[in-house]
């Protein structure tokens, strides 16, 4: 992968971020309205989740949602930062935090811009705005990026599949828990995942660039970006 293609990838990514910001602005300005079918889908999913609730499952999904909670994410990120330093992989620390901070920044921007109210049948009270789901966004960014870093250490495809499968299970568990507990609409979770994917790609590109620089080999010898 040569530097020209790498720059093109970065420009495309920046374009996606810019488009997201523009859509937020248009939403706030009232030029874009939420499709009726999406509102209806959100309500139907919310009603279905409320019918499935039991005290036992609520406890389980409270545990699942904790995997995307701010306190847990910060603690885990701190531990991983120390581990990367001890394992002499400190060059991965910067892209790791770029992913986390970038994700949280976009989530914060979305929340303060749209100020969507939370569902009124939630299991517990959340004080922040509903859209987008911060838990969904950060879980995808964090566990997705962690899985990506770990797959760099393994050559066998079966190991890579297992790591990504575990990450996907964790990510889906967090997202579904937000729906089950009634603290988010389906569109909130989908938007959160979209942001998480966006910043996960950013992190993967930065990691690849760092690896190319550290190896000091002609970038053209790399066939793939990720």
UniProtKB/TrEMBL annotation:
Residues 96-204 form the Phosphatidic acid phosphatase type 2/haloperoxidase domain. The keyword Kinase does not apply. This is Phosphatidic acid phosphatase type 2/haloperoxidase domain-containing protein. The keyword Transmembrane helix applies. Keywords: Membrane, Transmembrane, Transmembrane helix. The chain crosses the membrane at residues 60-87, 94-114, 134-154, 161-183, 189-211. It comes from Candidatus Magasanikbacteria bacterium CG10_big_fil_rev_8_21_14_0_10_36_32. InterPro entries: PAP2/HPO, PAP2/HPO_sf. It holds the Pfam family PAP2. SUPFAM superfamilies: Acid phosphatase/Vanadium-dependent haloperoxidase.
